[in-house]
Amino acid sequence: MIAIIDYDAGNLKSVEKALVSLGAEPVVTRDPRELLAADHVILPGVGAFGDAMEKLHQYHLIPVIREIADRGTPFLGICLGLQLLFEGSEESPGVCGLGLCKGTIRILPQTEGLKVPHMGWNSLCYGTANGRLFQGIPEHSYVYFVHSYYLRAENPAIVTASTEYITRIHASIEQDNLFACQFHPEKSGSVGLAILKNFLTIR
Asked: According to the model, what pLDDT value does residue 91 have?
């Protein structure tokens, strides 16, 4: 079973639709029993870091997510879902993230001629690690971003893809069974569907 964590964040339906197009039968849920029974778990999200963490607390999902991570279940964070895996964000000072990965979420600096939020297609430059999400996908493939904040991971070894927009953006990470993308694979055409398909093959 593939579970999509429902914590009232945006973009759940887009992720569900993309998975269905791959022949999967995802379940959108916040039921701990369903989440812990899943073979793959996805944490999507569009919204504010602080609000999202408040919802995860409200629905008692934080210990569930930690248990999923501890069990080794393949787990994918998308956009805000990537940011929540880390320790905190400049968007919500004083609010702790899940802290499953080390690093901070920073605001994209204002730069003349470049708009924030960053909305559009950017190419990926792969890291030194051989990211399992990108198997069979050529480097410099284009994916779709919508964000005002970006990851700076503490350990560059977990960064499997980066992109350039105003600054160097850590666009995807892999740490044991934890995977995450700042971009939206569900909105990235055939490349994005290939990334999601790769995730579903991970055991």
From this structure: 97
